[in-house]
């Protein structure tokens, strides 16, 4: 049996400058979401070729129980690997739903696995990139869960379990998450601006891009810009389909497309 590497230890913080990136997050891809998957595959085919970098800031998957299940994501891996093969840089940050996304998946896609927070030069400015859940500090219950699932020893222990047990844990976690959401206010589940501001200042960044909250918008925090990515969902029905991304325009500004 090969040695297990904790995904928490695998991400890099060293990223070359971004030239013409497109950012996405919170797709929550899963077999139960076929229309969202098809939209992702269309996006990879029709949009990604126009950019130099594809940056995925967490929750590409609705759940991910380990890189040894990579065969279940064959169409997604194929699409990302094709983008890499034609010279696109694919950068992936694990989110809270796919925190176990590791180096095996990244290697299969020809992608670079990123650390939870990464600073990178883009448009002559300094960007701080993250999934964003670390800044939801009013939700103390969630922060305890986040700390546990990102602990390298916990990850190694979880990855050592049989697949069936891991899947059971993932189902329980999703069910518990949905159950606790109804008891929490929107403010509690949102990022805290002062935490974002402190992280940006510590990183020397003046632009922050993140996902997680499903509240796409741009915000001004003193001299810091905070951009929130849209989530993707084309399977709920009732006219609630939505998806989108953030791109750079003329190498000068950011734009949310939805």
UniProtKB/TrEMBL annotation:
SUPFAM superfamilies: Metallo-dependent phosphatases. Its EC number is 3.6.1.54. Its cofactor is Mn(2+). InterPro entries: Calcineurin-like_PHP, LpxH-like, Metallo-depent_PP-like, UDP-diacylglucosamine_Hdrlase. Mn(2+) 1 binds at residues 26, 28, 59, 214. It is found in: Cell inner membrane. It comes from the Bacteria. HAMAP family: LpxH. This is UDP-2,3-diacylglucosamine hydrolase. The gene is lpxH.
